[in-house]
Design brief:
The complex is a heterodimer.
Chain A (H helix, E strand, L loop, with lengths): L3 E12 L2 E13 L4 E5 L6 H8 L7 E6 L2 E2 L5 H11 E4 L11 H10 L5 H14 L15 H14 L4 E5 L7 H18 L2 E5 L3 H4 L4 E6 L2 E7 L4
Parallel strand pairs in A: 3-8, 3-9, 6-7, 7-8
Antiparallel strand pairs in A: 1-2, 1-4, 4-5, 9-10
Helix pairs in contact in A: 3-4, 3-5, 4-5, 5-6
Chain B lengths: L3 H14 L1 H39 L3 E6 L3 E2 L2 E2 L10 H10 L3 E16 L2 E10 L3 H4 L4 E4 L4 H6 L3 E4 L1 H8 L8 E4 L2 E9 L14 E5 H8 L10 E6 L5 H15 L10 E5 H44 L1 H9 L4 H37 L8 H27 L3 H6 L2
Parallel strand pairs in B: 5-10, 7-9
Antiparallel strand pairs in B: 1-11, 1-12, 2-3, 4-5, 4-8, 4-11, 6-9, 7-10, 8-9
The chains are: A alpha/beta, B alpha+beta.
């Protein structure tokens, strides 16, 4: 069994009486420790695909297995549980809680995980230190630069020890220099800790950091190939 | 599931962000709870005063009055005919099992003189049983006994007001006073009873043996005649039975035929007072009900603000859901937030209500009684308001779609 596997995924919306196939039979398999970039023009279905593998959304038809769990058909709370234990999210807009310290933002997933307060704090401090944010634990997002905010978001994804990190245009709001830093960071995490990373981007330079690129078009996988990246 | 301390922490932070808004929202609950507490205190104060008056009158009392006299076609009202006598009183206590004590009364007003001071007061000729009937005790000296009744001795027991008017701070026991120019020896002083339910000073009274009153003070047309008979029933449950037994007995004694009207009336004093107490209780409940409407309005204010809060924080809710918050984690968070608002408002409202009651009794001289039950009730009710009006916003928050919530600007 692969770490992440979809079989004939369909996502069909009804828009004005017309069926729209956001996903039209997508079968993809990803192994533990891979670093995959998903590319494609807007409307190609890459965001829908990300939402489904991130357990934020459910397919209309098809099967999805994540770390041995059959995800299709689970209810809201079961999906929330899987997101909590298996998935860390990094968004384009960072999505940190405002007026809340970096430390508490990193602790957030663990709040819903029955970890003791001491354990939560220890893990959050470790993750922040690893991402070079030592000394900024008590800063609110508004007091941090974009690059630092994205590091806090990555720390949040790591601290809960989820095996899958989903990054949706993580560098979309960052300048080139900071984008390079963040991508180097993700690449380093992938090779050092073996965390599986799935990244959505439309920039080839960003996709080049991954080791495999899956291209979507019209809800289907158009191409799936390894990059030269080591 | 998220832990309670974390949830409370999150709620407090969210409420602190909008301090002004939180305080204004709470104001509705503060005023509502304050009004409920103050109204219940006023109501409880009123019924407390009435029940105090019932206790001072003597409990479980019936009053038997003679019938009305008809003179030339004019009926002159209750008590105008001399139809009751001492024999009636003695038979009532002997033959009515529901009755525990009776005191026949022959009363009138008279000028009382001691030394160079004088005072107009009520003179009550009665029997020693009056103390039992009216639950009254002596402050000093002794009460007259059966021998005084038999001998029609000239002894008097004074109420506190009479003592104050005639003797000032002196001890009156042993002194001689003149009632309608007849000298009486003061043998005892009654404890103070204060005002009656009708506002009369119950201490402005002198008790003398009924035989003395009949023979030496008022003089009676029919031997043994009395003006009224005060009857004490065994318990409040015995009142109706006593009333029936007395009526039957007196009809028989007075030889009243089937078709004839009674030549006496039996009044249930305790029942009259209890009705007054009951009506003051109902009044208090009504006031409380009106006040709780404002509590309801306060609750709607909370719901309103919570709905605004849920909309404002859609993105936050999306983030929480994305990292694993379940349906009840989200609901819990918003319910706790509403509960924090309503309970904080409740506590402040209780303080306001206590202050308002104190102010009412200080400024308007209304008696107020704040019971711990009403405080508990108000606190519990504000909690219920928080949960009830917090639930819908919390439910709405928990039903958001995480993808749309994350995209919300």
């Amino acid at each position: 069994m692969r770490f992440l596997e979809t079989k004939e995924l369909y996502k069909i919306y009804e828009v004005g009486g017309q069926e729209v196939h956001a996903l039209d039979g997508v079968s993809v398999a990803i192994d533990r420790g891979e670093f995959v970039a998903i590319m494609g023009p807007s409307g190609s279905g890459k965001s829908t695909f990300m939402n489904i593998i991130g357990c934020l959304d459910e397919p209309t038809r098809g099967d999805y297995f994540l770390d041995g769990i059959e995800v299709a058909g689970l209810d809201r709370d079961e999906l929330a549980e899987i997101r909590n234990r298996k998935v860390g999210f990094v968004f384009q807009g960072f999505n940190l809680l405002p007026r809340t310290s970096a430390l508490e933002n990193v602790e957030l997933p663990m709040l819903y995980n029955n970890l003791s307060a001491a354990e939560r704090k220890k893990r959050a401090m470790d993750a922040l230190r690893m991402l070079g944010l030592k000394g900024r634990e008590q800063h609110a997002p508004s007091q941090l630069s974009g690059g630092q905010q994205q590091r806090v978001a990555i720390a949040r994804a790591l601290a809960n020890e989820a095996p899958l990190l989903l990054a949706d245009e993580p560098t979309g709001n960052l300048d080139t220099k900071t984008s390079v830093e963040i991508m180097e960071l993700l690449k380093g995490l992938n090779s050092a800790s073996g965390i599986t990373i799935v990244l959505v981007t439309h920039e080839p330079e960003i996709a080049a950091y991954s080791r495999r690129i899956i291209r979507f078009r019209d809800g289907r996988v158009q191409s799936d190939e390894a990059t030269g990246s080591s | 599931m998220i832990s309670l301390p974390s949830t409370i922490k999150i709620s407090f932070r969210a409420l602190r962000v909008n301090k002004m808004r939180s305080v204004l929202t709470m104001l509705g609950i503060i005023i509502g709870v304050g009004a409920v507490i103050a109204m219940l205190a006023v109501g409880a104060g009123a019924s407390h005063r009435i029940s105090g008056q019932i206790a001072s009158m003597g409990s479980n009392l019936l009053l038997v009055l003679p019938g009305s006299m008809t003179a030339g076609g004019l009926r002159l009202g209750a008590g105008t005919r001399a139809t009751l006598n001492i024999g009636d009183a003695e038979t009532i206590v002997k033959e009515c099992p529901a009755v525990t004590a009776v005191a026949p009364i022959l009363n009138g007003a008279a000028q009382v003189v001691y030394g160079d001071s004088n005072w107009a007061t009520a003179i009550f000729g009665t029997m020693p049983e009056i103390l039992t009937v009216r639950d009254w005790n002596l402050a000093s000296g002794r009460f007259f006994n059966d021998q005084d009744i038999r001998n029609a001795t000239k002894v008097a027991v004074l109420g506190q007001t009479v003592v104050g008017s005639l003797f000032g701070n002196m001890d009156p026991v042993g002194s001689i006073i003149r009632i309608k120019k007849v000298p009486f020896t003061v043998i005892g002083v009654l404890e103070s009873k204060g005002q009656s339910a009708m506002g009369q000073d119950q201490d402005d009274i002198i008790y003398i043996p009924i035989s003395t009153a009949q023979k030496k003070i008022f003089g009676v047309t029919i031997p043994g005649m009395v003006r009224s008979i005060l009857v004490k029933a065994g318990s409040s449950d015995d009142l109706t039975a006593s009333e029936r037994q007395i009526t039957e007995l007196l009809r028989q004694r007075h030889r009243i035929g089937e078709q004839q009207e009674n030549d006496f009336t039996v009044r249930n004093l305790t029942q009259i007072m209890q009705a007054a107490e009951e009506s003051s209780r109902v009044m208090a409940l009504l006031l409380g009900a009106v006040a709780s409407v404002s509590l309801l309005v306060g609750g709607i204010g909370i719901m309103n603000i919570m709905l605004v809060s849920v909309t404002e924080r859609t993105r936050e809710i999306g983030i929480r859901m994305a990292v694993g918050a379940k349906t009840w984690d989200i609901r819990f968070q918003f319910i706790i937030e509403a509960l924090t608002l309503s309970l904080t408002g409740g506590i402040l409202g209780i303080l306001l209500g206590i202050a308002a009651s104190e102010a009412l009794s200080a400024l308007a001289q209304w008696p107020t009684v704040i019971s711990s039950l009403s405080i508990l009730l108000a606190f519990g009710f504000s909690g219920l308001v928080g949960i009830f009006f917090g639930f819908y916003p919390a439910y709405k928050a928990s039903r958001l779609n995480p993808i749309e919530a994350l995209r919300y600007e």
